[in-house]
Amino acid sequence: MQVVEQGTAAFQILKCDLMPNESIIVEPGAMASQDVGIVPDASVNGSFIQALMLRFLGGESFFINEYTNRSVKPQALYISQPVPGDIQMVEINNQEIFLEAGSFIARTQGVRTNLRWAGFASLIAGEGLFKLSFTGQGRVWFGCYGAVVEKEVVGDYIVDSGHLLLWPSTIQLELKLAGGLISSFLSKEGFVLRLKGHGKIRLQTRSVKGLAEWLNARFWR
Amino acid sequence: MEQQKINFELQHRPSSTIAICHLPPGETLVSEGGALMALKGPVTVNTTTHQKKGGGVMAGLKRLLSGESFFMNQYQSQQNSQIWLCSALPGDMMIHHLTGQRLIVAGGAFVACDSDVVIDLEWQGMKSFLSGQNLFWIKAQGHGQLLLNSFGFIYPVQVEDEYIVDTGHIVAFEETLNFSISKASTSWIQSFISGEGFICRFKGRGIVWCQSHNPSEYGGLLTPYLRPKRK
Fold it and tell me: Do the Cβ atoms of A8 and B15 come within 8 Å?
């Protein structure tokens, strides 16, 4: 299976060439256009309970969509995301990675999704009680709003909570106030994430919440 | 004397595209209201509800239904002039040369055309209710140039017999193609749980131009974070 990122940095989409009987798991609603030989097959995302948890606690879909080439010729599928921005791929080989809710786009069959406990502090920061984890072997595609920035973390690093996109399990997250109690709220930074450990993280240069806040301030004046 | 044509020049492609329309003397540029960014030269602007060749208030009203603006602007000049046009969303534009065949354009994708193109509203049937597009389409015909815009970039697909495009991703298609609304999967239940719901199934031979991103999905993602009006 050949998957290439198309378009420019501002508007990437995936063109996925499927050989006969090849398949790819795609986030529901992400298909933009496709050849007719590719057929979607929706099923529950893991076990019923797991799917419920993924849906309501992890911000993921209850169902997963597996697109398979049922024809005898190579067929193509275009996969898009709702926001303008980059799409990137990571290859995992039995290590565990975490993705920000909503950024998952597609994965190959050998990759599994799970929920991991993120803690009450994460809930307070608006990040949810659970975090979305990917394990197994294969490729995972994720999208972001804006551009993806890669950063090798060694030791300590601080990230604004809406901008962290992907991090490996070798990095622990800790929630803290951006400054003192008062300055954190005056500076509008609120909570930030302190990252500890070693590994490569990915950040997004824009956040949907940031755009919404900007718009909200301009509406209904 | 051969009448000089408008030269459309696209800049800042594909994410922040604008079109610089080089207008020769005597030519007319027809554009959607609200697309103007800048003018260079002694250009006169006529705002009407119709094109030169007929229409009227009804044409404007019909255009509203297609998601376009009620008024059209007609630009004319006695000298070489420039008209800079832009769109509201970030994305690409394309220039299409009509040579007699017809093009069906999604409402909202039309930006401008020269005076050799006749645009009219096209009713594609009740299926448009479910297509994720506007109820009316724009039918362009003639022997001229057409300027279209998109959310994201535009990719053309040469359809040989059948092709599927998700609702909301259509920019334009050749009239040799016919589309029908159908379910995304083999059963209706599957289609809705797959998150795709309805899709547009194109049949025939011709080109369909798709846009990489869907404006409604972008809006849908943003809406939960927007604050309602305070009473």
Answer: yes
Q: Check A42 against B14: CB less than 8 A apart.
A: no
Q: Is B165's CB within 8 Å of A84's CB?
A: no
Domain extents in chain B: 7-225
Whole-complex ipTM: 0.85
Q: Is B186 on the interface with A (CB under 8 A)?
A: yes
What is the domain partition of chain A in residue ranges? Answer: 2-146
Of A112-126, A162-176, B137-151, the least confident: A112-126
Place of tokens 């992907």: A166
Handedness of CA B180, B152, A166, A127 (dihedral sign): negative
Q: Which of B199, B213, B218 to mutate to test the interface with A (most CBs of A within 10 A)?
A: B213
A84–B222: do the CB atoms touch at under 8 Å?
no
Digit-coded pLDDT (tens) for B83-101: 999 998 889 999 999 999 9
Q: State the nearest Cα–Cα gap between B149 and chain A, in angstroms.
A: 14
pLDDT of A221 strictly over 80: no
Given this model, what pLDDT does residue A25 score?
Answer: 94
The band of A53, judged by pLDDT with boundaries at 50, 70 and 90, is: confident
* Nearest residue of A to residue B216, measured between CA atoms: A82
Topology (CATH level 3) of domain B7-225:
Double-stranded beta-helix (3.60.160)
Homologous superfamily of A2-146: Mitochondrial biogenesis AIM24 (3.60.160.10)
Which residues of chain B lie closer than 8 angstroms to A36, CB-CB?
A: 162-164, 201
Q: Which residues of B178-205 are buried (b: 16+ CB within 10 A; e: fewer)?
A: ebebebbbeeeebbbbbbbbbbbbbebe
- Residue A210's Cβ-count burial label (10 Å; 0-12, 13-18, 19+) is middle
> Rounded to two decimals, what is the model's pTM?
0.87
Residue A48, amino acid: F
pLDDT digits (tens, 9 = 90+) for A63-96: 788 999 999 999 999 999 999 999 999 999 999 9
Of A52, A155, A65, A103, give the one whose Cα is nearest residue B194.
A65
Which pLDDT value is given to residue A113? 86
Dihedral sign of CA atoms B195, B198, B202, B203 in order: positive
* Partners of B30 in the β-ladder: B74, B113
Using CA coordinates, name the residue in chain B closest to A36: B163
| Residue A49: its H or E element | helix A48-56
Are the C-beta atoms of residues A200 and A149 closer than 8 Å to each other? Answer: no
How many whole angstroms separate alpha carbon A186 and alpha carbon A204? 24
- CB–CB of A150/A190 below 8 Å? no
Q: Test B212 with A216 for CB contact under 8 angstroms.
A: no
Q: Do A84 and B218 touch (CB under 8 A)?
A: yes
